[in-house]
């Protein structure tokens, strides 16, 4: 129930030690380690080791119940806790409390604890990272990437829209009783997954409200959404390691991407200098000052738009009411603007390397949130999720093969849909830090289109379910 380490400082230290250990072993000259990292990308380990520390090792957890206070609540209500529940996951304990007791939610949730590390990384480190990564952005180089990036983004969206109905049709035909839900409950619940996978959290919440999804079904869908999306992200990170082989199979021309990487690298070398305390503080001021401006702007814009909430929901632009959406947009815009100023020379002090450091910390906190044990408990829903993702992948690879798009566009187009602004730059920067802004820009487009695509997908699933 409670992880071994509950102190946030200890958990953060442990995650950073894991990151350090991964990078240390990656640089070792030992043949064993070199062979290991030939097949396993370091970024994938930075993602999955924290997940394993959560489950099954139980060392850390994003959410947990404090056992003694919770047992006191049960004792006061004359309810005996089940045997061996000290080893249960947060999700299992919460499900038992909801289904097997008549306690008020407020009574037992008062004993729940939630880690703020992902919030810290996504709301503070991610915006700073985007600013630092965008400082040296090569606008001309991005334009030279051509239309294939957008084509693959839209192909990814179409794959999600078609994948939901196709997965529902396939599983209902092969195994009609696979999921313990009525067809009506199932399509409504899956509409929230479509909202998340095409847009993001705001689009997911919009689908919950539009299609009146009950809270218990919504909770189950969130588990499927997070686990399946994170497993797919793991495959994408592995794909980065073999991207040259995939590009050859796709007959893709990745010269524009290579040229952009080289131009950014050449620019970094031309302005490289030994960092001093003074220069590092200037860089920190630019990054964290931009963070302050982005948060202030988001806090100002959202209340201005709130009176128009009903209208924005009706036209599918509920993302505009999300503070996180504006935080990402404003931080990226700030970084893009600075790329036209002398602040661009901060790349010589390692701005993109600091940005990458913050990205890796975000990756570790994302991995920490994943509970691999939940896969076993929701096999029916996961079967639908996996089929759905396979259709998405199939559409992506088909389109990529037809237009000879590099794997970079496949991976980032997919993650901009499925993962959103928090993880699209992670996948993009795995190819090269110079490419992180591509992931951000695509993810922002996903926020804008997510609700429309999810509604189309939901209506198709409704037709199949009925």
From TrEMBL:
InterPro entries: DUF819. The chain crosses the membrane at residues 6-24, 36-55, 117-137, 149-175, 217-240, 278-297, 317-338, 350-368, 380-400, 407-428, 434-461. Keywords: Membrane, Transmembrane, Transmembrane helix. This is Putative integral membrane protein. It comes from Saprospira grandis DSM 2844.
């Amino acid at each position: 129930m409670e992880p071994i380490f509950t102190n946030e400082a200890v958990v953060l230290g442990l995650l950073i030690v894991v990151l350090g250990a991964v990078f240390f072993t990656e640089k070792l000259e030992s043949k064993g380690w070199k062979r290991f990292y030939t097949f396993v990308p370091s970024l994938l380990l930075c993602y999955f080791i924290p997940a394993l520390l959560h489950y099954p090792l139980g060392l850390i957890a994003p959410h947990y119940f404090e056992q003694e206070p919770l047992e006191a609540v049960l004792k006061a209500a004359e309810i005996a806790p089940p045997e061996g529940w000290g080893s249960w996951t947060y999700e299992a304990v919460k499900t038992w409390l909801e289904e097997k007791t008549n306690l008020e939610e407020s009574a037992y949730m008062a004993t729940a604890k939630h880690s703020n590390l992902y919030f810290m990384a996504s709301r503070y480190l991610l915006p700073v990272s985007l600013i630092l990564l965008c400082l040296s952005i090569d606008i001309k180089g991005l334009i030279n990437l051509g239309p294939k990036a957008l084509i693959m983004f839209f192909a990814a969206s179409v794959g999600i829209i078609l994948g939901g109905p196709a997965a529902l049709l396939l599983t209902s035909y092969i195994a009609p009783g696979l999921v313990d839900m009525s067809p009506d409950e199932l399509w409504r619940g899956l509409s929230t997954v479509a909202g998340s996978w095409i847009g993001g959290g705001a689009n997911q919440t919009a689908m919950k409200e539009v299609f009146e999804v009950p809270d218990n079904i919504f909770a189950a869908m969130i588990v499927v959404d997070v686990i399946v999306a994170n497993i797919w992200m793991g495959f994408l990170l592995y794909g980065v390691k073999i991207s040259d082989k995939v590009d050859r199979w796709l007959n893709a021309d990745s010269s524009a991407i290579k040229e952009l990487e080289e131009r950014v690298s050449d620019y970094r070398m031309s302005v490289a200098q030994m960092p001093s305390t003074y220069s590092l503080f200037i860089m920190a001021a630019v990054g964290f000052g931009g963070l302050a401006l982005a948060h202030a702007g988001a806090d100002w814009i959202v209340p201005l738009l709130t009176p128009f909430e009903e209208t924005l929901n009706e036209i599918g632009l509920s993302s505009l009411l999300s503070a996180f959406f504006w935080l990402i947009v404003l931080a990226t815009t700030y970084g893009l603007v600075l790329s036209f100023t002398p602040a661009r020379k901060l790349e010589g002090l390692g701005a993109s390397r600091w940005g990458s450091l913050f990205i890796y910390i975000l990756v570790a906190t994302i991995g920490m949130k994943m509970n691999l044990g939940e896969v076993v408990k929701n096999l029916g829903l996961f079967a639908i999720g996996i089929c759905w993702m396979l259709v998405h992948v199939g559409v992506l690879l088909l389109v990529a093969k037809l237009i000879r798009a590099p794997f970079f566009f496949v991976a980032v187009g997919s993650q901009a849909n499925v993962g959103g602004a928090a993880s699209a730059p992670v996948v993009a920067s795995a190819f090269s830090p110079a490419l992180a802004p591509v992931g951000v820009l695509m993810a922002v487009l996903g926020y804008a289109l997510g609700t429309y695509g999810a509604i189309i997908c939901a209506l198709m699933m409704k037709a199949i379910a009925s």
